[in-house]
Specification:
Elements: E1 15-18, H1 24-35, E2 39-40, E3 45-46, H2 47-68, H3 88-91, E4 93-98, H4 105-120, E5 124-129, E6 139-144, E7 147-152, H5 170-174, H6 176-184, H7 193-202, H8 210-224, E8 230-233, H9 234-237, H10 241-252, H11 254-272, E9 286-287, E10 290-299, E11 306-312, E12 316-321, E13 324-330, H12 334-346, E14 349-353, H13 355-366, E15 369-372, H14 374-390, E16 398-403, H15 415-431, H16 444-455, H17 461-506, H18 518-525
Parallel strand pairs: 4-5, 4-15, 5-8, 15-16
Antiparallel strand pairs: 1-16, 2-3, 6-7, 9-10, 10-11, 10-14, 11-12, 12-13
Helix pairs in contact: 2-10, 7-8, 10-12, 11-14, 13-14, 15-17, 16-17
Length: 532
């Protein structure tokens, strides 16, 4: 899928949709045509068969997940505003996903768009809670007295996946609103953080997992606003039979997949002039006969994940993580390989998708249309090429959605211009002080002397040096007469610089959604902006 360069909207209330929202119906139709005709030759199965399996499993996994959380199970397929052909509503899926973190409103916007677009097109909507990614530092960024404050809500951990990331300091976690209260009291609005945090703390008795507390509290807010849709953690998706078929399809042709993956990354770096070997993602490594796979792996109870390496032999896939040998997976029969792969989880061996394979699975095995944010939309250009070359099929198109909401803080949009103007006037005060004084009798001789120095031509180097020093001396003698004005301008410049710094802090779009007023978020998310 070829996308234009994606940039976050700059102005408050702006929405980014690529392609445009009125193209969603056409994207669904085109994608269904592609996905229903693919045959996964390495597994001797049609993609349509695997997609039916994946959807059945995820509906069951989602139902169990919501029930375990004590939540109502959302309906599977919202009713479209106009009748659809028989069976289309139940066969159409729209999917999105994100890490269970305190993301900014532009990310949360996707959830509401997913719900509304699915309703319009008679689709089942599913949001993937990507708890297989590593947890970010437990810090909340807030505007604080003109600067960016960093308020901890727990002890940060190192490279721990969200599915393993338990709250370490419950007291620090619980009293975040109290610690933020003095800062928020200086704002000219009431953020939803205290109310949201009460929802978060309701989950503390149910789960120690930080990300799950955030996800459940967010869903509670969404239901309160009339947005209810299925969710399931990616960690549970990776335990399904359908995901095992997907993983085995990659391992069956791992040398070819490995080469394709790295070639695509090299081409992307060359096209975009990227010199870093770690961007957009690192290459898959080789260690003799061992090939790195696009999966993370770790043992149950461990807090850090490792890279899964595989050595392919005629009879089995030998597995290795961080130098430790894992049970081999027999590979002579696809069904037996899938069964052995799934058995690893019950033995305490966890294998999870990485970013590209997460969306690759979602786009091929689940969605008729996947909704990305800006970052995912950029990186999934790589996924497109891998799908097209390895699976020998056109990649289904995806939708990129984001939005910008700014905190309703006082802004000073003209401050930078004032700083530049004051800087220019400040230079003139030093080098042209005569322009800022009245030509009074005691000053007139000094001005005339300077004008005389200005009139001197300075034909030789010695004359030019003499002229320079003469002008500088006259400026220094005139400076005391403009010193009060200079001091006043410097004070004004300091004030305008403070406003520039504050404006940079206030105009960030990436503050956590819980810092915004509930009324602002609800009005924006529930507005009728999704209709084609």
């Amino acid at each position: 899928m070829s996308l234009p360069r994606l940039h976050a909207p700059k102005e408050h209330g702006q929405i980014l949709a690529v392609p445009a929202l009125d193209q969603v119906g056409a994207l669904l139709e085109t994608n269904r045509s592609i996905l229903n005709s693919v045959h996964v030759s390495s597994l001797c199965k049609s993609l349509a068969e695997l997609r039916r399996l994946a959807r059945r499993e995820l509906l069951a996994a989602s139902t169990k997940y919501h029930q375990e959380a004590g939540e109502p199970v959302p309906t599977d397929a919202p009713s479209p505003p106009t009748p659809l052909p028989e069976g289309e509503g139940s066969e159409t899926w729209m999917v999105a996903g994100h890490q269970p973190e305190l993301f900014h409103p532009g990310v949360w916007f996707k959830n509401f768009a997913l719900h509304r677009l699915a309703s319009q097109h008679g689709a089942t909507s599913l949001n993937l809670v990507v708890d297989t990614d590593t947890a970010k530092p437990a810090l909340l960024h807030v505007p604080n007295d003109g600067r960016l404050g960093r308020i901890p809500f727990d002890r940060s951990s190192l490279e721990t996946p969200y599915e393993e990331r338990a709250v370490a300091e419950e007291a620090t976690f619980a009293d975040l609103p109290a610690r933020l209260a003095p800062i928020m009291a200086r704002w000219n609005f009431e953020p939803m953080l205290p109310m949201f945090w009460r929802e978060v703390m309701k989950q503390a008795g149910r789960t120690p997992l930080l990300g799950e507390r955030f996800a459940a509290a967010r869903r509670s807010m969404e239901r309160h606003w009339g947005c209810a849709q299925r969710e399931v953690p990616m960690s549970r998706v990776c335990q399904t039979e359908a995901f095992a078929w997907f993983a085995c399809a990659i391992l069956h042709g791992l040398p070819a997949f490995h080469a394709t993956y790295n070639q695509v990354i090299h081409e992307y770096r060359q096209t975009h002039g990227i010199k870093s070997r770690s961007h957009p993602v690192p290459d898959l490594a080789t260690d003799g006969a061992w090939l790195e796979t696009p999966f993370w792996a770790w043992r149950s109870g461990q807090s850090r994940r490792g890279k899964l390496f595989v050595r392919c032999t005629p009879n089995a896939w030998e597995l290795r993580v961080n130098g430790e040998s894992w049970p081999a997976v027999p590979c002579q029969n696809a069904a037996h390989a899938v069964e052995a792969w799934r058995t690893l989880e019950s033995q305490g061996y966890k294998i999870r998708s990485r970013a590209l394979t997460t969306t690759m699975f979602a786009r091929l095995f689940l969605a008729d249309l996947f909704i990305h944010g800006i970052g995912g939309g950029i990186y999934d250009e790589l996924t497109d090429r891998i799908i097209e070359r390895y699976f020998a099929t056109p990649a289904p198109a995806y939708l990129v959605l984001s939005a910008t909401l700014l905190l309703p803080l006082e802004r000073f949009p003209g401050a930078l211009q004032q700083v530049n103007e004051l800087a220019r006037r400040g230079r003139d005060l030093i080098y042209k002080p005569e322009h800022f004084v009245e030509r009074e009798p005691q000053i007139e001789p000094l001005i005339q002397a300077k004008e005389a120095w200005i009139a001197r031509t300075g034909l030789t180097r010695r004359e030019r040096v003499e002229r320079f020093h003469g002008l500088r001396a006259m400026n220094a003698r005139l400076l005391p007469y403009v010193l009060p004005l200079k001091q006043s301008m410097e004070a004004e410049q300091r004030e305008q610089l403070r406003r520039v710094e504050w404006d940079a802090v206030a105009s960030r779009r990436d503050y956590a959604f819980c810092l915004y007023p509930e009324e602002m978020l609800r009005a924006f998310f529930m507005a009728d902006v999704y209709r084609a």
